[in-house]
Write a structure and sequence with these properties.
nucleotide-binding, 214 residues, alpha/beta, AAA+_ATPase, ATP hydrolysis activity, four-stranded antiparallel beta sheet, ATP binding, ATP-binding
Length: 214
């Protein structure tokens, strides 16, 4: 049996204040992704979505647990080669630097020449409408070529939910330090706390009457 494309093995990140003894925020996740698919990721600002992506891409070290990509722990790979396993496309193109814990020569070489996991963080940001179709085709092509694709959106307009509904096979909702999984769009937008998070952009569900403006 081959290794899953991505395994988040008992992964957690704990943040503490400079003087605080107790954790101010902890994000925990334990999940695996066996094959190529497109996964939609949603959650409130500050919920830990970017931290999750950074841990998967190897730019933010977990407090405990491992990130295994095709069986290789990305945090044991030389930093300059980690994008051969997972690559994080940040909407603001920010480059964050993290302190190295070990010299590169003591770390492993990446066992892949090209990224297997692609993490898109708010990819619609500053994207003209005419290019969104090309962007979605790119996501589908990556999946067809055997890659695992994550698309993180913070929906503020119905068309962004339409994007997730059209291209995503499964969904993750990040909130309160937990990562919950959903198998389809109807289920994720039916959860009461997720509808509260979506607010006015939450889709009308079957049997639900939309409010009429008089």
């Amino acid at each position: 049996m081959s290794a899953p494309i991505l395994a988040l093995d008992g992964l957690a990140k704990e943040y503490r204040g400079l003087l605080a003894r107790e954790a101010s925020f902890t994000l925990s996740v334990d999940r695996r992704f066996d094959g190529p698919e497109i996964v939609g990721v949603m959650g409130p600002n500050g919920a830990g979505k970017t931290t999750l992506f950074e841990m998967i891409a190897g730019s933010n070290a977990p407090s405990v647990g491992r990130v295994l990509i095709a069986g290789q722990d990305i945090h044991q790979v030389r930093p300059r080669e980690r994008d051969r396993l997972a690559i994080h496309y940040h909407q603001s193109y920010q480059v964050r630097r993290f302190r190295r814990t070990r010299p590169a020569f003591l770390q492993e070489r990446a066992r892949s020449a090209y990224p297997l996991v692609h993490l898109f963080d708010e990819p619609q940001f500053n994207t003209q409408d005419g290019y969104i179709g090309f962007m979605l085709d790119f996501f589908r092509r990556l999946k067809d070529e055997g890659h695992l694709v994550f698309v993180c959106l913070h929906p503020t307009a119905p068309f962004q939910l339409d994007i997730l509904n059209e291209i995503c096979d499964r969904f993750l909702f990040v909130s309160g330090g937990q990562v919950r999984a959903y198998d389809d769009f109807a289920t994720v937008v039916s959860a009461p706390d997720i509808r509260l998070y979506l607010g006015d952009v939450a889709p009308v569900m079957p049997g639900q009457r939309s409010e009429m403006i008089l």
